[in-house]
Structure formats: C-alpha cells, structure tokens
Amino acid sequence: MNPEELREFDSLCEVFSSGTNVAETQAAADKLQQFVDSFDNLSKIQACLENTDSPNSRFLAANSLKDLISKHWNRIEPNDKVAMRDYFLKLIQDRKDKLVQNDLSAIILLVCRTTKLLWIESPEDEDFVKAVFAMVDQDLKSHCIALKIFDELINEMNEITRGRTITQHRRAAIAFKNKHMLNVFQISLNSMKESYKAYSEGSMGNNDGVETILELALKLSYSCLSFDFIAASPDETLEDPAANQLPSSWVDTMINHTNTEIFLSILFSTKTTNFWSLCLKNLGRLASTRRSLFSAEQKDKFFRTIIDGFAMIAQKDYLFTDPEEVFNFTVCLHKLHVNYPLSDLVKNPENSKWLECLAKICASFIVEQSKEPDNNHAVLNYIISIWAKLSGDSSYTKEFNTTIEDCVELVMETYIREQLRNARELEFENYNLNCPLETGSTEINPTVDILDQFPRLFRHSYARNLKKLIPRFQEIMEYYQSITAGNMMSPKEMKARFTEGEGQVAWIIVTSASIVHLRSYQSEEKEALDTELTVNMFRLIKVINDISEQGQFMYSERVELAVLYFLQMFRISYINDPAGYSLSYVNNDDLLISDTHGSKVFHNLASELGCNNFLDIVELVANKAINNLTMWQDSEKVVTSTLRLFESLVTGHNSSRMLLKLDIIQQFISEYNRVQNYLNKPSLYKYRTVLHTVIGKLWFSSEFIENFDANIRVMNEKLNDMLGWDQSLLASNTQAKSEIIKLFRDL
Questions:
Q1: How many CB atoms lie within 10 A of CB 665?
Q2: Cβ contacts of residue 740 below 8 Å, gap of 6+?
Q3: Cβ contacts of residue 146 below 8 Å, gap of 6+?
Q4: Which residues pair with 244 in a beta bridge?
Q5: Are 217 and 314 spatial neighbours (Cβ–Cβ below 8 Å)?
Q6: Fewer CB in 10 Å around end: N or C, the chain?
Q7: Closest CA relative to residue 156, chosen from 122, 215, 115
Q8: How many CB atoms lie within 10 A of CB 286?
Q9: Burial of 720 from C-beta contacts in 10 A (0-12 / 13-18 / 19+)
Q10: What ranges in 140-272 are assigned the alpha helix state H?
Q11: In the predicted model, what is the mean pLDDT of residues 345-373?
C-alpha cells in the first residue's frame, strides 16, 4: 500500500467514525466495506494496521483482518498462519505505548482468534503462550497487556467460533484447559498478590498502574473460574450443573488458603467498588467448586475458609451500599446453599452470625430500594427467592430453623412495611407493584418472581408474619371507613380520598392472593391462619365496594384487577380444591358439601363472613363476575380477566356443580334476551364468543338442558328477522351490522 492509499484509508475511517454528515458517512462506509470484504486486500489491510497512526484506522483494520482470517482461514498458507500470529503479537509489543484502549483490544482479539484457529489445527503449538508468559515479567505495560491477552484467549476458548464445529471447538478448548489453564490462573493469583502488596505498601510510584494490574488480575481469575469445563470436556463427572467443575489437577491450588484470602484482603483494604464486585464474583465461583474435587478433610478445610470469609464480609456494612454488591453476595449464599449439604452449613459456628448479618443487609437494601421502586427489581426478587429456598430447607435442622425464622421475620417485616409505604406515598399511576399490575399489561401476571417466591417465604413463619400483616388490613379498612363516617363528603371529595389509598389496597390484595394460592392442608393451625387471611380479604373488598356504591364512582382498574386476581386464587385454592371437600346430592336435589379434612375450614370461612354456608361464598364470586360484565364495559382488561374467572368456574368440576345450584346463575342463563345486555359495546363484541362458550357449558348441563331449545329458538327467530331485512340498506346501517356480528359471534 502506497502512502496515498494509506491517507485515503485514514480519511475514510475518520469520516466513518467521526463524521457529522449522514451522506458522507454512508459513502465512506460503502467504500470501506468494499475494500475490507475482499480477501485480495488482506496484505493491504495488514499494511494499514502496521503503518497508520490513526487509532480509528487501526481499530477498523484489526477487526477487518479478524473477519477475513476467520472466513478465509483455509486459503492462507500454513507457514503464513504462524508468522501472521507472531507478527500481530510483535506489533502489540512494539506499539504498546502508542496503542489506545479500543485499538489495543481489537488487535488482542485478532491475536487470540488467530491462535485459536491454529490450535484447532495443531493443539501442540505452545510458543505463543510462552511468549505471553514472558511479557508478565517485563515492564508494567507489558504485564497489563499479557493479562488482557490471557483474558481474551480464555473467552475465545470458551465460545464456539462461527463457522467451526463443536468438535473443532472442543479440540482447542481441551488442549488449552489441560496444558495452560491452571498456569494462567496461577499467573492471575500471583499478579494479584504482588500488586496488592505494592498497593498496600505504596512501594511503586505509579499507583494507577498497580490498580490496573489488580483489576485485570481479578478479571482474569474470574474468567478462569468461569470457564465452561463441561463443554470443553464432556467426560467430566457432572455432579451438579451449578457446581464449578474444576479439573483434579487444580486441587492443590484450591486448598491453599492464601489463594482464597487474597480476595478477602483486597475486598477489605480497597475503596474501589469495582474491586469489591470482582472479589465477590470470584468468591462466588470458589464457593461453587465441586465437592468431589476434595477429600473429606480437604473439603472441610476449604469450606471453612470460604464460610469464615463470608461471615467477615457480612459484618462490613460499607460493602453493601450498591445493589450490585448485595446481589453478588446473595449469589455467594445461593452457591453455598446449592453446592454444599445443609449439615455442612449448620455445623459451622459462624453460620448463624453470617445469616443474621445477611438478613440485616437485605433489610437495609429493601429500605434503600424502596426509595427508587422502579429500579433493582431483579436484585430484590433474587433476594426474596434465596430466602424462600433457605427457609424451605430449614425444617430439616432444628438449629438452622431457629436462626432462619428470626431472619425471615426481619426480611418480611421490612419488605411489607416498605412496599406499603411506597404504595401510599408514590403516585399510584406510576407505581408498578413489582410488575404484577404494570401499566400497559393485559392482566396480572402470577408468574412474576416476587409473586412466586414471596408467599413461600411468608408461609415459613406463617403465624409470625401474618401477625404483622393483619394490622395493615385493619389500618386500610379504618382509613376507608373514616371516609364515609358522618356522610360529610361530597362524591367528588370521597373519590379523591379513596384514590389516595388505592396503591396500598392493590398491593395488599395481590400479595395476599399469592399467599392464598399456596394454601394446602397441613394442620388445623395453618387452616385457621388461611381462614383469617381470606376473611380479611373479603372484608376489605366489601369495604371498598360499599364506598364505591355510596360515592357513586368506580375505583381504579388496577384495584379491580387485583380483586379479580384474588378471586381467581381463591377459586383455585378453595372452590376447585378436590382434596378439600367432596360434593354429593341428597334426595337428588340438595347439594351437600362435606369437608374431608374434618377441620371445618369451609364452614368456619362461611360463618366468619356471615354466610349460611360455603355455597353463599361461591355466589359472591359468581355475582362479582356477572356484575363486571355490565359495570366494567369500558375496560377490556377487566372484561378479559372476568371472563377468564367465569370460564374457570364453569370448567371446574366442583365449581360448575355449585354454580348450577345458584339462583343468580339460573337467572343469568334462563333467557337469551337477558344475555344480550352483556358486552354490548362494539369494542367488546370479540369477547362475546368467550361469554357464550361459558353459557353453552351451562346450557348443556343436565339441570338446564331444557333452556337450550328455548334459547336456540330465540336465536332462530332473530335469524329469520334478519332474512327479511332490506339487503340494500345493510351496507349503510351500522346498527344492523352490529346485530348481525353479535348474533353470529354468539352462535
């Protein structure tokens, strides 16, 4: 490449990278694309990389060479492949003082890609690794570059290269793992120890350079510990998919306690949050090391070092000011919980202290997270899920259970308090209730993590946690009852006051519904607690309904969706529970509900709500569904959720038999003309199909089969009337078209 061509290449790269004119930028991109896509220009691009002084040109040239070499590897002569790789490495060493971050990273990636392609052909090639090892002992800049090269090389070996088979990938990855991975990991540890010593003693003038080596060494060690040993060697014993399957040759390095303690020393001595995060990630990977790597004595020693270190970390409050550190430390807990037997956790004397400190950390994080409720949901959900898993195992060990109960109570109390405070203080329309009632969603999503894990954790210490939650019901009900006291407010003022508390109502209904959903018969005591929670839910719903009727206004869509979600969960846990009761007919007429557990839970629930029997409670649910079809026709979300609830009631064997005994259901399906009043808005016509699916199931029941002929006769009469309409007027008659659409959807 002559100087003129090089200047043109630099000019195009500058326009492409920094140009402000869209047309000029696109023209430069087209010319560059045409130039770098041709394998015939390989030598010219290599000359650009060697001779240019522009970082943008070096970056583009390095990336272009990587793509060309990967795509046309078989067209390159064997001797040229090794020479090319060595040339790129020498270029880095010669130009290390001129290279900036982006173009250095691009050239390192080029070197590592070329090296992997060489190892795919000949895994015996070791000259490159020796050359990089030698750079570690040179100056500070070379040391940093060597660590970056090893880090990128591990990433290359850990990922399948495009255009290569899995067999080829494993050939190179296994060769690298067996020959060099342990040495690279030891290089990272030694670099860490030396740079940390220099950092703590201040023995090196360039402290920034020492911190750079420390950070790069931490990243490299994490890459080594995160290497996919299973994919690299399918013959490894897969003890646990969550375990870190280190090779047996690593055992001496892993049981050396100084190699674990260096991460703790860096964590406690530095003030850089990036170091804290990297140290916690490394410790998490160490905690997930497969147990079969060690003998029994070695395992106890290694585990004791890890758990003692975590106990010390948990007592350092200043480490957990950022959500990422809280998340990383919670991941460490999860790794230990998954990878080691519960007996190992319990018998360690530091275990209780560590869990207590962790509970305080999580509680503090919940308080801080509540100040920005739209952020950090993933971390909060993960924390709740980890505590739920720990509490599920605690019942197997008495000592562990005692500690866990206290910790769970602290986490639950803080979570409930902060969520309710947020729901009250923040703008309701901007509060997403941890996503189950998110604005724009079509329904409450019960699979959201928080609704899946929270009730499991709540039920661990059910009585203690419920004692904290029930007063919240009382506070909300007292607040709403004060609105109607004395009838001193106008409907407008009443609605404004009502809206202030809607956030708390929606949150507590959805959360309690998720708890009710997990109901299962365990004991009379647990059934009594379920009854108490359910009764309070129905009372709260009655209070808000009464205020809505008295003030002649509709409360928000979110509150109604929350109520429907509760009724759906109640249906699943009580009405459709085949193990909870049995149904039978007395004298072929009277429906008898028998409680198979003998706990009288259904009778207690009915009496607490002031109903004659459990059938009256089912009538409350059915009445709510029918009323919504007329009262909430402005909300497609409510209509959809209502129809889903109604269809579930009709489809369930037990619930459908109960529905057939209700007067309100008999009136609902007795006359087709009455049904015509539901879902009359054109935007809701599409839901009439679902509605008549429900009605059809009831019509075809043995009790109401006589209604089928009568209602079909009405539909037939309507069809005959339509046949008599003036066909020429139908195109312009909107009302006529609507009637046709409704009837055909019903049919």
A1: 24
A2: 722, 730
A3: 132, 133, 135, 136, 187
A4: 289
A5: no
A6: C
A7: 115
A8: 22
A9: exposed
A10: 140-158, 166-176, 182-201, 207-225, 229-232, 251-255, 257-269
A11: 75
Residue 594 backbone dihedrals phi, psi, to 5 degrees: -110, 130
318: Cβ–Cβ under 8 A, 6 or more apart, which residues? none
Q: Is 228 left (phi over 0), alpha (psi -120 to 50) or beta?
A: beta
- Give the amino acid at 114: T
177: DSSP letter: I
For residues 467 and 326, what is the distance between their CA atoms, to the nearest angstrom?
28
Listed residue (409, 421, 536) closest to 463, CA to CA: 409
Query: Dihedral (C-alpha) 719, 720, 725, 731: value to the nearest 10 degrees?
Result: 20
* C-alpha of 711 from chain center: 49
pLDDT in tens, 309-352: 888 888 887 777 777 788 888 888 777 777 777 666 666 666 67
- pLDDT tens digits, one per residue of 293-313: 888 888 888 888 888 888 888
Class of residue 742 by CB neighbours under 10 A (exposed 0-12, middle 13-18, buried 19+):
middle
Integer CA distances (angstroms), 638 to 84, 396, 549, 556, in order: 67, 44, 18, 11
Take residue 51 and report the two structure tokens written for it: 């001779």
Q: Is residue 96 within 8 Å of 141, Cβ to Cβ?
A: yes
Q: Which of 464, 375, 362, 480 is nearest to 424 (CA)?
A: 480
Q: How far is CA 717 from CA 383, 520, 612, 679, in A?
A: 62, 50, 42, 21
Token duo for residue 535: 């009764």
pLDDT tens digits, residue range 698-737?
877 767 777 777 778 888 888 888 888 877 777 777 788 8
Instruction: Provide the phi-psi class of 489: left if phi over 0, else alpha when psi is between -120 and 50, else beta.
Output: beta
- Whether the CB-CB separation of 37 and 24 falls below 8 Å is answered with no
- For every residue of 662-718, DSSP letters joined together read -HHHHHHHH-HHHHTTSS-SGGGGGGHHHHHHHHHHHHTSTTTHHHHHHHHHHHHHH
Strands (E), 355-444: none
Local structure of 489: helix, strand or coil: coil
pLDDT at 452 over 80: no
Taking a C-beta distance cutoff of 8 angstroms, is the pair 433, 502 a contact?
A: no
**The pLDDT value given to residue 444:** 39
Phi, psi (deg, nearest 5) at residue 590:
-80, 130
